[in-house]
Specification:
The complex is a heterodimer of chains A (400) and B (228). In chain A, 73% of the residues lie in helices and 0% in strands. Chain A is mainly alpha-helical and 400 residues long. Chain A has one domain. Chain B has one domain (30-224): OB fold (Dihydrolipoamide Acetyltransferase, E2P) (Beta Barrel), CATH 2.40.50.100. The chains are: A mainly alpha (400), B alpha+beta (228). At the A-B interface, helix 4, helix 12, helix 14 and helix 16 of A face helix 1, helix 2, helix 5 and helix 7 of B.
Chain lengths: 400, 228
């Protein structure tokens, strides 16, 4: 087997296929336009790209600000080892959100307009500004990894001085736009199903994003440890699981109180598609992860924690899809994404995975494991080792 | 329905990943010497310092140790407790130990009683003694204490015990096994490129000092330590 065929794994082949199909779809979308290549219409202007790429993408990137806040603001140093991977996920997530938006905007070349042509009455202005600024903050937060890789010690020191300011800015901007994404739906009280429409959508979006921030860090840590054979920081994962459980319970209380307060509890028990999807969302997003984490045996098992985190992540994706698509289907009409929409979304996700893998392999993303220590081998040390080994050769046994 | 489509797509990818991974694992090397204290000791040896000693494995003076890395402990009621010794558990820390016997089953010396499993590879632990299984013991959380796997109503006890080591004899035997372990480790990972860099203060080498071995090497290890 030669070098190239050895490197051709199943997922790499899949990546190439997804990328190729996505590029064809992307070309078609820009060449033929939105109407010809998407399931979107004047009645349903937001579909897959907004519901999944933007709404879910932003929420799943919340691990960056959540972990930064825990470590740098609340001084919970035990989470330090997972801050950088969380920031990387957030950074890549937001880049993909921006790229996804380029596909969704009718005239993507005007994406910079909110910078100069501001409508202060639009929630979108705040979202646009926050996302732009937070993406910049994330770039500054992650750039020390490049400097470390290049051996630019002074630059790393300079960046570290600015870390507290960046973190505070990041937390502030994230809190603002995570909630503002919920605020976007406040203008559709008559279109969004009562199971999801609420005046409390802004803080429900914020709390759910925060909870899933923990879940995403668990999921990415587990997958990274598996893919790159890193030591999994089990105590950190367990602590993150606890934090996730508490925040999900808090979210459940808020949602329950919201439904009762609006008198919408009854909709949960109707035989409708919305009710079914609502239960699926609550089951995956809250009930299953909370139960899994509450069981000590599962909590102490990395795979168990992975499944708990994954369930919470799927629940959040369902929530955002329900709010932006399912909840409005009855009033706006059916929408089903075209193959171009699906392919482009798949391409963006695949690119996200590939970029994460590249960064982990080439940059100091994960902290040193307990086994690495200070890894400096010098010629003198090697000479000493050889000399010592010659003197004190361990008993060698042939195992032919 | 779009939401369902998204969730099902993610679920489908996860299922495919599990299947692909299962297939890959079957062809992947397995890790030996994964236990932290074995790793530390091997690193010390690698740097020319004294490594493991028999006392590190805390052999109990009231237990008879078989060359196949099982032990036999005589119970007051005439039965014997049988288990896997700490040496093997530490050496194969990444492996899952699965019992292969059931109460009432007759086992003979040399018959597989438990299986160590990892990445699709298995090493079978052989019974040190003949007899009928009377009771299985639940797994204990601290495996470092050599928990017994099951109890046995023994047959040909004295004959089998003669082949085992106890007390000082067990320590001597363990010393030989440690020598074998270090020898195997030296053969499997003598290359600095594989071992990785080591800190100047005698610190720990980079992961994986833990040796990965292929099918042929794993078979040699099994033969060396009396496994099947």
């Amino acid at each position: 087997m030669n070098r190239w065929t050895e490197k051709l794994t199943f997922w790499r082949i899949m990546f190439v296929i997804i990328l190729a199909v996505g590029m064809v779809a992307g070309f078609r979308r820009f060449y033929l336009g939105l109407g010809a290549t998407t399931g979107l219409s004047d009645q349903v202007p937001w579909g897959m790209w907004i519901g999944f790429d933007v709404m879910s993408g932003v929420a799943l990137a919340a691990g960056g600000f959540t972990l930064s806040a825990l470590v740098y603001i609340f001084n919970l140093k035990q989470f330090h080892a997972v801050v950088r991977p969380a920031i990387l996920t957030a950074f890549l997530g937001y880049i993909l959100v921006a790229v996804g938006l380029l596909f969704d905007l009718g005239r993507p070349w005007y994406i910079w307009h909110p910078i100069f042509f501001r409508n202060p009455h639009s929630v979108m202005l705040e979202v646009a500004w926050c996302v732009m600024l937070y993406l910049t903050v994330l770039a500054f937060e992650f750039v020390p990894a490049f400097f470390e890789r290049l051996g630019w010690g002074k630059a790393v020191k300079v960046m570290k001085i600015g870390t507290p300011i960046l973190v505070i800015l990041g937390v502030l901007l994230s809190s603002l736009h995570q909630s503002s994404l919920g605020s976007l739906f406040l203008i559709v009280p008559n279109k969004l199903h009562p199971l999801w429409y609420s005046a409390r959508l802004p803080y429900l979006f914020f709390v759910s994003a925060m909870s899933v921030g923990f879940a995403m860090v668990i999921v990415e840590s587990y997958l990274s440890s598996r893919a790159f054979r890193k030591e999994l920081e089990r105590p950190i994962i367990t602590d993150l699981g606890r934090a996730m459980m508490v925040s999900l319970i808090f979210l459940a209380v808020l949602r329950g109180q919201d439904l009762i307060g609006r008198g919408s509890l009854g909709y949960m028990f109707q035989a409708t598609t919305e009710a079914g999807l609502f239960w699926l969302e609550i089951g995956l997003g809250i009930i299953i992860p909370v139960i899994l984490v509450a069981i000590p045996k599962i909590r102490s098992h990395p795979q168990g924690m992975f499944y708990a985190g994954l369930s919470a992540v799927l629940g959040l994706i369902l929530n955002r899809m329900n709010v932006s698509i399912t909840g409005m289907a009855a009033k706006l009409g059916d929408y089903f994404p075209s193959w171009e929409e699906l392919s482009i979304t798949a391409m963006l996700v695949a690119l996200g995975f590939a970029a994460f893998a590249w960064a982990v392999k080439n940059l100091p993303v994960f902290g040193p494991s307990p086994w690495t220590g200070t890894v400096v081998i010098t010629p003198a040390l090697e000479t000493e080792r050889v000399a010592r080994q010659a003197e004190l050769q361990p008993a060698r046994v042939s195992i032919q | 329905m779009v939401a369902i489509l998204v969730i099902l797509t993610i679920a489908a990818f996860l299922v495919i990943d599990v299947l692909v991974r299962r297939r890959q694992l079957a062809h992947q090397p397995v890790r030996v010497f994964a236990s932290s204290f074995v790793r530390e000791a091997l690193q010390k040896v690698w740097m020319g310092n004294p490594g493991l000693t028999p006392a590190d494995f805390r052999p109990r003076p009231d237990r008879f140790y078989d060359p196949g890395h099982t032990f036999v402990e005589l119970e007051p009621d005439g039965t014997v407790a049988v288990g896997v010794d700490r040496f093997l558990r530490e050496m194969m820390a990444d492996f899952r130990l699965v019992g292969l016997v059931t109460p009432g089953q007759t086992v003979s010396r040399g018959q597989p009683i438990a299986e160590l499993r990892s990445n699709g590879r298995t090493a079978r632990v052989l019974s040190p003694i003949d007899g009928v299984v009377t009771q299985l013991h639940p797994a204990m959380p601290d495996e470092g204490v050599e928990p017994p796997l099951y109890s046995l109503a023994p047959q040909n006890l004295s004959e089998h015990l003669n082949r085992m080591s106890v007390g000082e004899q067990a320590l001597l035997w363990l010393k030989g096994e440690i020598g074998k372990l270090q020898g195997v480790a030296a053969q499997l990972m003598p290359k600095p490129a594989l071992v990785g860099a080591t800190s100047a203060d005698g610190g720990l080498a980079r992961d994986p000092l833990v040796s990965e071995c292929d099918e042929a090497e794993f078979t040699k290890i099994k033969n060396t330590f009396g496994l099947m």
